[in-house]
Amino acid sequence: MALLSSPEPHHLLVSFLVLLLSLLFCFIKLRSSKSVPTLPTEWPLVGMLPSVVANLHHFHDYTTAFLAASGSSFVFRGPAMHFFVTCDPANVRHIFVSNFTNYPKGEEFAAIFDAMGNSFFNADGESWRRQRSRVQHLMSSPQLLAHMACCCRDKLKNGLLPFLARMDSLTPFDMQDLFTRFTFDMTAMSVFGVDPGLLTTDMPPVIVPDAMEAVMDVGFFRNMVPASCWKLMKRLKIGPERKLAAAQSELCRFVTEMMEERGDGSVHMDEEQENRNVEIVSSYIHDPEYIDDHGKPNGFMYATLINYMFAGRDTVGTTLTWLFYNLIKHPHIVSSIRRELAPIAMHKANNSTTMVTFEPEETEPLIYLHAALFESMRLYPPGPIERKTVMTNDVLPSGHKVQRGETILISLYSMGRMEGVWGKDCREYRPERWVKEDGKLLYVPSYKFLAFNAGPRSCLGKHISVLQMKSVVAAMVWNFDFEMVGGYVVEPKPSVVLKMKNGLWAKILKRQIE
């Protein structure tokens, strides 16, 4: 009661209740309407927010529909909300490349994703440049890249393939859960040098991955409501904000556990141990910026390590899930991938009891496999939306004027479904669009294919991630047949990471290769 008696929370609470009642009224009107307008309806007081709330269950497809109807760009107005939404490649190039410094992530972005602290996910300006330079140095280290490749190979041979072999009885299982476990373990091994063991015989609960998912789900919620609303909920510890607080505590507990398990409760190590450690955390544990006065990891290190976990887990795990969804639906594409793999596989042990695996250097030159991967990421980018803030007034290539402080939302999901960008067959999964007549991979500029970001913020882990995914897909496709389980809907969940709402349930059968 003491909290509500102060003027500011009381004012916010009244505003929140008025907004809630207005939203409820408009929502009922929208749900009772027989016609569903392509463009959001703008209401007094609450603007277009009720239309978004009414379509939140299929937000990404809804956004795609109104962007297609409005020429790839649209102005969204709501209570204390004013967003410019676009998927126009010319605008994307301007925002991400040509005029990059005018479009930082901004303070509100950092507040929305406060679980990431001041790490490079949230940072702008000099702090971002300094951190990115460090990540760039790390990702160019042959030792680290070899370690990451080893982590992937080990988890594939000793975790993923044995699990699939045990499931070789047409028993349904959730492929999304499987890839979540696989990529979580693989990423933790690369970051900490410790295997959390989520993909093991006993398949323990995925408590930490669930906490990571909660962070992204709440981040999406914060993007969709006025800042005053979610900040009040955070202060009162109610609704999604209560869930987020528990998730953040779980992530901190996980980092502490990993650091203790690897012997880094303190940063002091003997020379032999230091030489053994090539994982990511090793490059931070002696830096005064990342440790406190007692030699312990500080909040900045915690946020940075959590950032690495998100970067590694979400891109690979989400992409693999959607890729296999597409492959299962298109068996002729699976056959084409196998034909590309056959010359490599024929030189390996190949019988009913031996699993064939493929090294990164073997799959790297495979064009059709690469095309199948990128085509899936075009339609189902792991990060379906990006958010930017306008620093100074500007005019975009589309002719739209944006004002200082305005928020810009870029829909990667929608861009992959625009006829003006990808042609009449833009909604079809067709890897051939990535292959030129001479059989080489077609170059597509990053501002048109934004799955790995574009410009100065382009993903530094793109190359190693693609190699990892191609090796995993090759081994799974060569050794097993997959079949989708019916009776449920495959659709994206409303989040800033494109997870499947109901998972990806499939059956598996070991291939009989002669």
Automatic annotation (TrEMBL):
<dbReference type="GO" id="GO:0005506">
    <property type="term" value="F:iron ion binding"/>
</dbReference>
<keyword id="KW-0503">Monooxygenase</keyword>
<keyword id="KW-0349">Heme</keyword>
<dbReference type="InterPro" id="IPR002401">
    <property type="entry name" value="Cyt_P450_E_grp-I"/>
</dbReference>
<keyword id="KW-0408">Iron</keyword>
<dbReference type="InterPro" id="IPR001128">
    <property type="entry name" value="Cyt_P450"/>
</dbReference>
<dbReference type="GO" id="GO:0020037">
    <property type="term" value="F:heme binding"/>
</dbReference>
<dbReference type="GO" id="GO:0016705">
    <property type="term" value="F:oxidoreductase activity, acting on paired donors, with incorporation or reduction of molecular oxygen"/>
</dbReference>
<keyword id="KW-1133">Transmembrane helix</keyword>
<dbReference type="InterPro" id="IPR017972">
    <property type="entry name" value="Cyt_P450_CS"/>
</dbReference>
<keyword id="KW-0560">Oxidoreductase</keyword>
<dbReference type="GO" id="GO:0004497">
    <property type="term" value="F:monooxygenase activity"/>
</dbReference>
<keyword id="KW-0472">Membrane</keyword>
<comment type="similarity">
    <text>Belongs to the cytochrome P450 family.</text>
</comment>
<keyword id="KW-0812">Transmembrane</keyword>
<feature type="binding site" description="axial binding residue">
    <location>
        <position position="459"/>
    </location>
    <ligand>
        <name>heme</name>
    </ligand>
</feature>
<dbReference type="GO" id="GO:0006629">
    <property type="term" value="P:lipid metabolic process"/>
</dbReference>
<dbReference type="Pfam" id="PF00067">
    <property type="entry name" value="p450"/>
</dbReference>
<protein>
    <recommendedName>
        <fullName>Cytochrome P450</fullName>
    </recommendedName>
</protein>
<dbReference type="InterPro" id="IPR036396">
    <property type="entry name" value="Cyt_P450_sf"/>
</dbReference>
<keyword id="KW-0479">Metal-binding</keyword>
